[in-house]
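Tokens in:
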């Protein structure tokens, strides 16, 4: 319940719009009988009537002076060939005045001789229009174009018809979605801006996708408290988890390793069970290729823990000095759970594998597209995981601001590659020497003594 302020009366006809005739009639009555009488007669507020009376008086004061200045400008205008007639231009409204090419050239000649302000006052135009014509003519001279063509009148209407999409854009949107049918309209729009430097709205993309057979999913969003955690640098924290699926009645397990900061996948493995051996191989391959993480977060899967004592993954983390963390709270491993859902939606439900070898090929292809080509909503919609993981965020955003497409980086040239020639590794408490990727000492593999 609102309470009116003390000492303030209600305004009659609050929010009403009055025509120009009504304003002039009220101002004329107020000039003879006062603003209060005019407000009571016409049912208006006294403040509005006073404002109209003041505006009318100021207009009456400016009108004779403006007419005298305009008459002086018309009498002193030089008669040059092709020049506009100031008297005819003065009779027109200043806003929206159209000048021909000959008129613009005469105005620019006068501006170069006497200044832009003098030309604007002489020919009843604005200084900003003259500056724009000067800029166009200089650009035409520098670009070796036609100055007269640059001075030709331009339409203020948009070049495209509202609500109608060009055929080229229509086909480009359709082809992009047909190649990435698991993506939504917003992701397709961001992907077009990244790969094709094409800015298009989400509603337009959705309309084209629906013409191609896209059916919006019915998703029930569960309202949860906003609790967001993210690492501050690459390799600070990685998540491990298995995804189960069937291949011709054979159960397979896809192990994924995801970087928390960049959502980059430094490693993966396809195996027939949640066993420790493929986990160790995938983690060591990821460390050898992309460096050692500081923390490894896993759930309670059998491939990460043992029934008794310390598991192989825990011992490996101890050898490398990596913090081994078990996710016990809800949401601790949520990024990888969302990744598992994307794997099922974009890969497992759309690709039919012939055998295990074909499954490995398709998984490798999807992982590369996910790392280097697929835009990620968790990264702002325009970045891919590789941009963050390799520190290319500023470079990519600068290219997008310039309107340039972002190209997936290819292999480095030979002079820019870095090769690790010599390495010392401790395996099972025993040192090993590696040279050019081959172990040189000890020469033979000896199993550690038991007990």
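Residues out:
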């Amino acid at each position: 319940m609102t309470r009116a302020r003390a000492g303030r009366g209600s305004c009659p006809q609050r929010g009403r719009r009055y025509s120009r005739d009504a304003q002039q009639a009220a101002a004329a009555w107020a000039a003879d009988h006062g603003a209060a009488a005019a407000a009571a007669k016409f049912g208006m507020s006294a403040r509005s009537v006073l404002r109209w009376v003041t505006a009318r008086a100021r207009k009456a004061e400016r009108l004779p002076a403006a007419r005298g200045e305009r008459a002086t400008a018309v009498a002193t205008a030089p008669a040059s060939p092709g020049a506009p007639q100031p008297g005819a231009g003065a009779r027109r409204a200043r806003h929206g005045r159209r000048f021909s090419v000959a008129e613009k050239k005469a105005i620019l000649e006068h501006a170069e001789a006497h200044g832009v302000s003098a030309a604007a006052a002489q020919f009843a135009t604005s200084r900003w229009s003259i500056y724009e014509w000067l800029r166009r003519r200089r650009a035409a001279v520098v670009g070796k174009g036609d100055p007269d063509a640059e001075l030709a009148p331009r339409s203020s209407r948009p070049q495209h018809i509202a609500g109608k999409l060009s055929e080229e854009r229509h086909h480009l949107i359709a082809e992009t979605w047909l190649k990435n049918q698991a993506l939504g309209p917003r992701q397709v729009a961001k992907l077009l801006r990244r790969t094709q430097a094409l800015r298009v709205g989400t509603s337009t993309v959705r309309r084209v996708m629906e013409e191609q057979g896209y059916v919006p999913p019915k998703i029930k969003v569960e309202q949860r408290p906003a609790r967001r955690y993210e690492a501050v640098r690459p390799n600070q924290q990685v998540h491990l988890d298995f995804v189960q699926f069937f291949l011709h009645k054979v159960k397979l397990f896809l192990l994924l390793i995801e970087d928390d900061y960049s959502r980059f996948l430094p490693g993966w493995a396809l195996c027939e069970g949640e066993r420790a051996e493929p986990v160790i191989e995938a983690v060591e391959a990821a460390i050898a290729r992309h460096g050692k993480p500081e923390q490894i977060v896993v759930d309670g899967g059998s491939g990460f823990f043992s029934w008794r004592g310390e598991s192989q993954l825990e011992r490996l983390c101890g050898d490398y000095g990596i913090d081994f963390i078990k996710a016990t709270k809800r949401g601790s491993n949520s990024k990888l759970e969302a990744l598992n859902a994307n794997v099922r939606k974009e890969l497992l439900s759309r690709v039919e594998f012939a055998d295990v070898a074909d499954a490995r090929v398709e998984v490798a292809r999807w992982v590369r597209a996910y790392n280097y080509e697929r835009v990620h909503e968790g990264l702002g919609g325009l970045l891919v995981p590789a941009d963050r993981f390799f520190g290319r965020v500023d470079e990519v955003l600068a290219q997008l601001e310039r309107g340039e497409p972002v190209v997936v980086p290819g292999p480095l040239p030979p002079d820019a590659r870095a090769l690790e020639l010599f390495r010392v590794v401790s395996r099972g408490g025993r040192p090993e020497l590696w040279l050019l990727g081959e172990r040189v000492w000890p020469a033979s593999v000896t199993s550690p003594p038991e007990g």
